[in-house]
Amino acid sequence: MVGATGDLSRRKLLPGLFHLGSSGFIPGCRIIGVSLDDLDPDGFRKIAREALDQFSSRKVDEADWAAFSGTLNYVPMSAGAGALKAAVEAAELSLAGKSRRLHYLSVPPSAALPAVRLLAEAGLVQHSCIIMEKPFGTDLASAVSLNAKLHEVFAEEQIFRIDHFLGKEAAQNILAFRFANGLFEPIWNRNFIDHVQIDVPETLGLGKRSGFYEATGAFRDMVVTICSRFSLSWRWSPRLPWSRRRSAKRRTKSSAACP
After folding, report:
1. Domain check: are 227 and 249 in the same one?
2. Model confidence band, residue 251 (pLDDT cutoffs 50, 70, 90)
């Protein structure tokens, strides 16, 4: 998990991983945090516990925390690719059977390529997938460039470009509401819908994210990612079986149809 001490990690990723682990959904999992902060594993565990105490939606059970903290390790970026490779190999040796690697990049666009290069130098590309958080680049040209350089290391089938907010239950429910509701599905078309309004009430301030917003801004962070994807979810029509490539083409076509 690259960017393991950042705001997204503390608010969402670490609490989410803890709840998945304590619920038994990710047995045999080892989590290695990577960031610019010069910490040791115990320091990272302290940050993780503080994140759970502050942002977890439920009280932390001490037995669950003891089990979860045992899965955590940490490698600072300054330690280099060799230290990261050694940490990953040690984690894999502690697991029974063949393991798979998932690289989660919780970093701004400017830090994405250095993180990818670190993974390549450490020899951690094979048998792995990589998750790229939004925003993917800062404009079309930077996104195209980032995509091309990313493909020099990872194959397209290994790459997942995501917006973590689209994984929320309310967002996922839109598709079920759209396609599986017998009352609304037949009338979900231009003849019966005048307009769709998307409100994003935000109570969270900048906090420690001022550097991110100075470089990215609310428009790139919210409108062209979360809001546009919500809009596309409302406009899809179920005519063909779903596939990743077909879904991307239909999103592009739907976006091009917007005034």
Report:
1. yes
2. low
User: Are the C-beta atoms of residues 73 and 40 closer than 8 Å to each other?
Assistant: no
Structure pTM? 0.79
- Kindly state whether residue 58 falls inside one of the protein's structural domains: yes
Q: Would you place residue 22 in the very low, low, confident or very high pLDDT band (cuts 50, 70, 90)?
A: very high
Q: Which of 162, 196, 225 is the last residue of a domain?
A: 162
183 and 138 within one domain: no
Cα Rg of the chain, angstroms: 20
- Give the position of tokens 């792995």: 128
Question: Do residues 156 and 197 share a domain?
Answer: no
Query: Do residues 72 and 42 touch, judged by C-beta distance below 8 A?
Result: no
Write the DSSP symbol of residue 198: -
Chain-wide mean pLDDT for the chain?
Answer: 85
Burial of 205 (0-12, 13-18, 19+ CB in 10 A): exposed
Domain extent, residue 42, equals: 7-162
